[in-house]
Every structure is written in structure tokens, then in C-alpha cells.
Design goal:
With 536 residues, the protein is α/β, with parallel strands linked by helices. The protein has helices at 14-28, 40-52, 72-82, 97-107, 119-165, 169-184, 210-228, 249-252, 284-344, 351-380, 393-408, 429-446, 477-480, 498-509, and strands spanning 5-10, 32-37, 57-64, 87-92, 111-114, 189-193, 203-204, 234-237, 258-265, 270-278, 388-392, 413-419, 424-428, 451-460, 463-470, 513-518, 524-531. Helix content is 52%, strand content 20%. It has a five-stranded parallel beta sheet, with helices on both faces. A five-stranded antiparallel beta sheet has the order 7-6-10-9-8, with helices on both faces. The longest helix is centred in the middle third of the chain and has 61 residues, at 284-344.
Length: 536
């Protein structure tokens, strides 16, 4: 079909039409097609046919005023109502000024020319009007392209926001497929992962035949992938053989005409390609738009992979830290158990002493079991089972101090006991002992050069206040302010700081409160406040 613009001549006199069309063909035949009509009705039907054909456009209509049926001014009025972009010239006699004025007002007439016309004047008018039409048409097309690009940019912006919010690759792929569909109004596409060690099954639209997906995958992994790693999109015509596919795939799959392959890659890594199906070649602008989408996809996918690797590494590191913490925490009771069992094997020990050490071994074993259970409870975020018991607080504190007195022998650390409150209190004994052990263990670790740890108790109105104070180096503000958070440690080579997080949880579960005062060089004081009336 011709891509020339059309000029339509309308006159009921055949001789006039022949003269006019002949003159115009001679002047404008190289740039325009000249068509004729003998009536307004015939002209309107012709214009409809031309405009309904793809790529055809009518630039100018030259219409005589005096015709049977619909007059020239009324014809141009109807034409203007439907196709205002078409330029219009009215041919009139000397008495046709009134008709010309009507056409100017009602039909947006561009020019009226009196008969008989001068061909040079008419040609100059036609040249000017067709140039105006062409310029206007180009501007309109340019504006449409700008609007389309702006719409695509807005769409890409929204797609980028959507992709950046995705934290799971399984959600990412459907989002990218939906985005491609929105940009191209095309639901036939496949995402091919990078082959090699990252080889995964292609993700294809459900309506694409599995056999076709397999053929395209083979072509991609064997030939196309290396070409696409250069970062340049490729368009393949499957109606004929090409360098990537040795046979025309359209012969086997009639609906397959063209595929466009868009690389999905970052500067760091080639991730795969998006393959889209089209019935014809697509514009450079659409290819660029799809490339931007592919870049957004690649960035999000690459970041998800980095995040997954980071999380995996952090999990492994955390597991290692927790194992280190557990081993470290187990060392103390196991050392105590080993020492006491060794003493019990001495035949010079009295039965009373062996019984005492036997009870202490049992308590240390219970302590180890309690440590394991509390770590499990903490990791699951649960409160665990409470075994509330009415006990003499003085006895509990005394047993704790006895364990450390044995451990601190020869280490330059002393335990100072100030039990002003020794009466009954309802607590989970093993959990509370675990909390106090954690605090005293931290104090011990902080005093490598020796010092003292004071364990005190006193009644404060309707609560009991426990105080554990050490003469160690104290804590810097950044540690002190976050000491009860998981995995915070005060420069210790062992553990992750879980101990104090567990301690706070135990105190909270007792409906109590724990606080500390610590300054560098001035030691540390932990204060625990427990309600006397049971609340759990």
C-alpha cells in the first residue's frame, strides 16, 4: 500500500475533474496520490475507505461549491466534523462569497479560490496546505510517541517500586511477567534462567506448548546465551532459518512469528533472558523499554540473591556463635561436676561430705539441663513451663554463692553475701538460678585481674530487691544500653550475649524488673526487683 498522502478532488463536471486532477498529478504526482469524486456522497465514501486502510491518510480535499445534492460548503462542514485535520479548499464562482464565509465559519475552511483558477496560485496554495498538514501530522505523531514514552516511564516507575518491595523470588517472576504483559499487551513469554550451574526449568506462560519451550530452551542454552551475554537484545524471525535455529519454527508452530530476547543482567552477573513472542518486529522504543524492565528485574533478582547469601551466612555465623555460647556456658558447671566427682572418689572423705557433693553434682546437672531448655525456649520465643515453688530465698542465694566460692578459689575473686531478706518467696528456682548465674558469670569474666562480687537481698515494700555488684571495669555506654538485646557481648571471645537476653526474659516472666548501673572504671550493679505476691 502507498504511503503517499491523498488529495481528493470533488466536482460534478467530469471535464473539470479531468482538468484539475491532471494539473495536480503533474505538479504533485511524486508526493501524493490524486483521487476524484463526482459528488459529496461519493467523496465521503472514498475518504472513509482510504482512512480505514492502514497507513493511508487524506491530506487535502478540493471541493466545488455548486453540485447536485449536498453543496460544497455543507460537504466540507460534514468532513470537518469527522476529520478536522484534513485541509480544505472550496472552489466557487464570482457569486460564491456567501458560501465561502459559511465554510470558513462552519467547516474551518483553509482557502477558497474563484473559478477559473490560476494553476500557479492553486499549486502554491496546495503546497502550503499539504506542508502544514505534514508538519501537523508529524507533531501529532511525535506527541503521541512522547505520551506513550511518558506512560511507559510512569509504568516502569510503578513497576520498579513494586519490584523493589518484593523479598521473595517466587513472587518476583509473576510480577515481571505481569509487567511485560502490561507494557506489550502480550501474554506469551518465557524467562530462561542462566544455564550452567544455575540451570533451572524455564518459567513460561501456561498457554505456550511445552515442546516449543523445550526447543527454545535448547537454542538458548546452546547458541543464544553467549550472544545475549553481550547485553544486546535480539529479534529472531522464525518464519525462516537463522543462525540460532536451523529450521523455520513457524512450520511446526504456525502462531510463532518473531521472538524478542531481552538480556537480564547486572554489571556483576548475567542472570538469564526474557523471551517474548510477537506477530511482527517491534519498535526500538519498545525494545528499550523492555530492556529497562529487564534491568529492574535483574537488579531486584541479584539483590535477592545477595540477601539470601547474606542471610545464609548470618544464620551459619549465628549457629556457630550459639554453639560457642552453649559450650562456654557448659564449661563452668561441667568443671564443677568434674571437680566434685574427683573429690568424692577420695576415700578419706566423710559420708556427710560425699552426700553434700553428690547433691551439688545433681544441682549442676539440673543447671545444664535448665540452660538447654532455656536456650530452646528463647529461640522459640515462648515462656516455657514455670515450676513455681515457695522457697527460702536465703537458701537459694547461699547455694549459688557456694558454687562460685569453690570455683573462685585461687582466682583472686571473692563472694560477699549480704542477705537481709532470707524469707520465703514464690519463684521458679531453676530459672531464677539460671538468671543469677548469667549475671555472676559476666561479672567473673569481666574481672580477669580479680575483685569482689557482692550478692545482696532486701525487702522493698511489697517486693524483694536482689543486688549483684562487681568491682570490675564497668561497661561502655554502647554495651550498657543494649546489654539485654540478643547477641550483644562485652568484648568476650565466647558467647553471643544471649545470656543477658535470657536473664531479662526470666525476670520479665516473673513479672519483675531488672536494671543496671555501670560506668567505665566503676564496676557494675544489677538490681532485680521481684514481687512478693505471686503473679504468674
Amino acid at each position: 500500500m502507498s504511503k503517499k498522502g491523498f488529495i481528493i478532488c470533488i466536482d460534478d463536471e467530469q471535464a473539470v475533474l479531468n482538468q484539475l486532477s491532471g494539473q495536480l498529478a503533474k505538479k504533485f504526482g511524486n508526493s501524493h496520490e490524486i483521487e476524484i469524486a463526482e459528488s459529496a456522497e461519493e467523496a465521503m465514501e472514498l475518504i472513509d475507505q482510504l482512512i480505514n486502510q492502514e497507513h493511508e491518510h487524506v491530506e487535502l480535499v478540493i471541493c466545488d461549491q455548486i453540485m447536485p445534492g449536498l453543496k460544497g460548503d455543507r460537504c466540507l462542514e460534514q468532513l470537518n466534523a469527522r476529520f478536522p485535520e484534513i485541509k480544505k479548499i472550496l472552489l466557487t464562482g464570482q457569486a460564491g462569497l456567501e458560501s465561502a464565509i459559511y465554510a470558513i465559519n462552519k467547516a474551518n475552511l483553509d482557502k477558497y479560490i474563484e473559478k477559473p483558477w490560476e494553476i500557479e496560485d492553486l499549486s502554491m496554495t496546495i503546497k502550503t496546505l499539504t506542508e502544514q498538514y505534514t508538519l501537523k501530522r508529524r507533531l501529532d505523531l511525535y506527541n503521541k510517541e512522547l505520551e506513550k514514552k511518558n506512560k511507559n516511564l510512569e509504568t516502569l516507575h510503578q513497576i520498579g517500586i513494586t519490584l523493589n518491595a518484593i523479598r521473595d523470588a517466587d513472587q518476583l517472576y509473576p510480577a515481571v511477567i505481569a509487567a511485560c504483559t502490561k507494557l506489550t499487551v502480550n501474554q506469551d513469554l518465557i524467562y530462561f534462567h542462566q544455564s550452567g550451574i544455575d540451570r533451572k526449568p524455564p518459567l513460561a506462560s501456561p498457554q505456550i506448548a511445552a515442546e516449543l519451550v523445550s526447543i527454545l530452551w535448547q537454542g538458548y542454552s546452546h547458541n543464544l546465551e553467549d550472544a545475549l551475554k553481550a547485553g544486546i537484545p535480539l529479534t529472531l524471525d522464525h518464519r525462516q532459518a537463522n543462525e540460532y535455529f536451523s529450521t523455520p519454527l513457524s512450520d511446526q508452530f504456525p502462531t510463532l512469528k518473531f521472538t524478542v530476547w531481552i538480556p537480564v543482567s547486572t554489571k556483576e552477573k548475567f542472570l538469564g533472558t526474557i523471551c517474548l513472542f510477537f506477530n511482527e518486529t517491534i519498535s526500538t522504543e519498545l525494545t528499550s523499554t523492555l530492556s529497562i524492565l529487564a534491568n529492574q528485574f535483574a537488579t531486584t533478582l541479584y539483590n535477592l540473591e545477595l540477601t539470601a547469601d547474606k542471610i545464609k551466612g548470618e544464620r551459619l555465623a549465628t549457629i556457630g556463635q550459639m554453639i560457642s555460647s552453649i559450650i562456654h556456658d557448659f564449661k563452668n558447671p561441667m568443671t564443677t561436676i568434674k571437680g566434685m566427682v574427683g573429690l568424692m572418689g577420695d576415700s578419706d572423705f566423710a559420708l556427710e561430705e560425699r552426700k553434700m557433693y553428690s547433691n551439688m553434682v545433681i544441682e549442676e546437672v539440673d543447671r545444664v539441663v535448665g540452660m538447654v531448655n532455656e536456650l530452646l525456649e528463647f529461640s522459640r520465643g515462648g515462656r516455657g513451663e514455670f515450676r513455681k515453688t515457695d522457697v527460702l530465698l536465703g537458701d537459694v542465694l547461699d547455694k549459688i554463692c557456694t558454687v562460685y566460692e569453690k570455683e573462685f578459689e585461687g582466682k583472686g575473686i571473692t563472694i560477699v553475701k549480704q542477705f537481709d531478706y532470707k524469707e520465703q518467696i514464690q519463684i521458679d528456682v531453676e530459672k531464677m538460678k539460671r538468671a543469677l548465674f548469667n549475671i555472676i558469670d559476666n561479672a567473673r569474666d569481666a574481672m580477669a585481674d580479680g575483685g569482689s562480687i557482692t550478692v545482696a537481698s532486701a525487702r522493698k515494700e511489697d517486693a524483694v530487691e536482689l543486688t549483684i555488684a562487681d568491682t570490675g571495669p564497668g561497661m561502655p555506654p554502647e554495651i550498657r544500653d543494649s546489654i539485654f538485646e540478643p547477641f550483644v557481648s562485652h568484648g568476650k571471645i565466647h558467647g553471643t550475649g544471649l545470656g543477658m537476653a535470657i536473664t531479662k526474659k526470666i525476670i520479665d516472666d516473673h513479672k519483675g524488673h531488672i536494671a543496671l548501673v555501670s560506668e567505665p572504671g566503676q564496676g557494675t550493679i544489677f538490681t532485680i526487683r521481684l514481687p512478693l505476691a505471686p503473679t504468674f
